[in-house]
Structure formats: C-alpha cells, structure tokens
C-alpha cells in the first residue's frame, strides 16, 4: 500500500543500523523503508535479535540510523540538532515501556503533567481530565505508583505518554509485565485512542494476541521487513512467526 507523505505519521527511508565496527560490527537493520499512516495501530513482531528495539529507537529519535532517513510527519529526525531532537522526543513522541517507568515519588497527576511542566508548557486541564477518564484513573490522581497495580500503572503511563498530544505513541512490549486480563485492558485502550481520537500507535510485542489488536502487523527478521498482515487473528500472527525462526 502506498500512502501519501502528507498522511504518514512516520516514514523510514532505506534505514540501516550497524553497531560497532570491523570484525565486531553487527548490522541490526538492513534497509527498511515504510510508511505508518496517521491514526493507525501498527504492531511490530519478529524473532529475538531481529531488530525490533533498534527500529523503535530509530523512530523515537533515541538512536540514529547509520544510513537512511527517519521522518516524524514532515520533520526529518536525522537533520535535527540535539536540542531540537530533545524537544521533538519530549513534545511529539509519547513512549510507553514494559516497566511503566513512572516516578515513584510523584502522584499520578504529577507524573502525567511532568513533561508539560519540564517543558514549561501550560497543563491543559480539560485534556488531563479527559485522559484520566479514558484510562479510568480519575479516582486515583493523588496516589503514588507504589499504591497502584501494574495495570493501573501502565494506564497512567499511557496517559502520561498522551499528555502532550504526541504525533506518535510508541510502545515497547507494553503488556510484557501484565497478566492476560490486564493486558487486554491496555490493548483495548490503545485501540480506543486510535479509533476515537485518531492517535497513531506503534507497538513492539512478542505476543500474537497483542499484535492482533493492531490494524497492521509488520514482521522483522534479521533486520529486514519480512511480511505484513492486515487485521490478522492471533493464529495467523503465530503462523507467520513460526516461519521466521525462534521467538
Ligand atoms: N548497543 C548495541 N551494540 C551492539 N549490538 C547491538 C546493540 N543493540 C542491539 N544490538 C544487536 O543488534 C541486533 C538487533 O537487536 P535488537 O535489540 O534491535 O533486536 P530485538 O528484535 O529487539 O530483540 P529482542 O526481541 O531480543 O529484544 C542484535 O543482534 C543485537 O545483539
């Protein structure tokens, strides 16, 4: 599928990434080109070591490709100076981690508004209320992370990631530490923010069930794109993965 550049939330253009040099060089990405349309939910799967984290880090501007270009909307990340890149990461990309990464000394409200406060941006109270309602945490604004379950902490982390209304929400194994039922709640939440507020979500996962919540599942193998499925069932995802090696 070819998507016009104007509608792409993210675009990779012949991206390669090599770690180290000479005999120790490891090539993690080997010429990835793709567009992620706005307002869609994409899952990335692949065997261990296939390059998923490297891919996500390049899109997030946390790592630079060795060659090729990465765009967030019309902004080419590799063309930015460090201070500009920091601002893009802070204000235009939301990141959700497997381990939640909330600040334990801060309340739910303080965690969610931290980025805005650090960036000297006004906290949009109406948006904050909507986010808290969406993630089902309105009753918990004054609690600290240690007083919440894992699923609740991950919902706070999602609200935090959405607080600046980012162009893209990137998630690295967001359900990896959650039980089945809580995982489903988090995945439904991703689905809702895509369907109801047009958020773009890109998620790396090992779980075929998690991937089946996405509109598109991309497969990586040995640093290359190795297939793509649209709205697949968990069984179809698992079947595709078995052809790619150990996972
Ligand atoms: N900082 C680094 N230095 C050297 N090699 C690295 C570095 N980071 C990743 N690699 C290598 O690049 C390749 C891709 O790694 P990456 O972490 O992107 O894969 P992955 O698909 O996310 O794996 P996993 O599912 O196990 O987390 C692997 O061979 C890995 O060993």
Automatic annotation (TrEMBL):
It comes from the Bacteria. It comes from Streptomyces olivaceus. This is ABC transporter ATP-binding protein. InterPro entries: AAA+_ATPase, ABC_transporter-like_ATP-bd, ABC_transporter-like_CS, ABC_transpr_LolD-like, MacB-like_ATP-bd, P-loop_NTPase. Keywords: ATP-binding, Nucleotide-binding, Transport. SUPFAM superfamilies: P-loop containing nucleoside triphosphate hydrolases (SSF52540). The keyword Cell cycle does not apply. GO terms for molecular function: ATP binding. Residues 10-247 form the ABC transporter domain. The keyword Methyltransferase does not apply.
């Amino acid at each position: 599928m070819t998507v016009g550049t104007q509608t792409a939330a993210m675009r990779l253009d012949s991206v390669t990434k090599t770690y180290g040099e000479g005999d120790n060089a490891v090539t993690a990405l080997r010429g990835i080109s793709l567009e992620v349309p706005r307002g869609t939910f994409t899952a990335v799967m692949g065997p261990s070591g296939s390059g998923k984290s490297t891919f996500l880090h390049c899109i997030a501007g946390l790592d630079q490709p060795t060659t090729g270009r990465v765009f967030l909307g019309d902004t080419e990340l590799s063309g930015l100076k460090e201070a500009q890149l920091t601002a893009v990461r802070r204000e235009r990309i939301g990141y959700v981690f497997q381990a939640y990464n909330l600040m334990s000394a801060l309340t739910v409200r303080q965690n969610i508004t931290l980025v805005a406060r650090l960036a000297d941006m006004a906290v949009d109270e109406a948006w904050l209320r909507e986010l808290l309602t969406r993630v089902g945490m309105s009753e918990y604004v004054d609690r600290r992370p240690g007083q919440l379950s894992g699923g609740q902490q991950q919902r706070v982390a999602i609200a935090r990631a959405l607080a600046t209304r980012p162009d893209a929400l990137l998630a690295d194994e967001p359900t990896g530490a959650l039980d089945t039922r809580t995982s489903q709640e988090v995945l439904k939440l991703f689905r809702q923010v895509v369907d109801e507020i047009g958020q773009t979500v890109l998620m790396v996962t090992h779980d075929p069930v998690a991937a089946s919540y996405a509109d598109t599942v991309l497969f990586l193998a040995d640093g290359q794109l190795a297939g793509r499925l649209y709205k697949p069932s968990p069984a179809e995802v698992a079947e595709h993965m078995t052809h790619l090696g150990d996972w």
